[in-house]
Give the backbone structure.
Amino acid sequence: MVSLVFDHTGLIISLLGIVLVLRSDILEKQSRRFFLWIFIILIAYALSDTISWITYEKVGREWMLASNISLFLASVFSGALIPLLAGFMLYSAGEEKAFRNRIFQMILAVFAVYLILLIYAQFSTAIYYYDESNTYHRGPWYPVLLVLPILMLILNIWLLWSKRNRLSQEHKA
């Protein structure tokens, strides 16, 4: 129940964020686009997570499919926020071509592995699975799925550290 309250609160805040971004005249085009994507992904995450909680432990093949898809999407959306933030940091630091940055390339590579593992999880019980009563279980490889977003966050911190002077210069200007 607490998770649903957080999901709905996040949904409301994200909807308000979209309205504010669209009505803002102080954000330039690139920043506006970034914040719109952030709020859209947060809305998609909140909706996916809500569906996951609503369908949890409801018996039937269609409920299990809905639980599996919603958990998969919630995981993809939450993970996608990390490379998006890295790209915005690079943009804010004055880098026109984020894809040329080595740390950003590593973040994208880790995100790609994360996506591959999430797809693999749909066909295996090694990472996570739902049993016939639509109850969620973690498999023996579940910790690997947790390590990858942590690694992306560490890379984001490294990126922030490496661009800290350029970010503060941009902010002062």
User: Anything to note?
Assistant: Strands lie at 128-130, 136-138. The helical segments are 2-23, 29-55, 61-92, 102-121, 142-162, 164-172. The mean pLDDT is 90. The two ends are 46 Å apart (CA to CA).
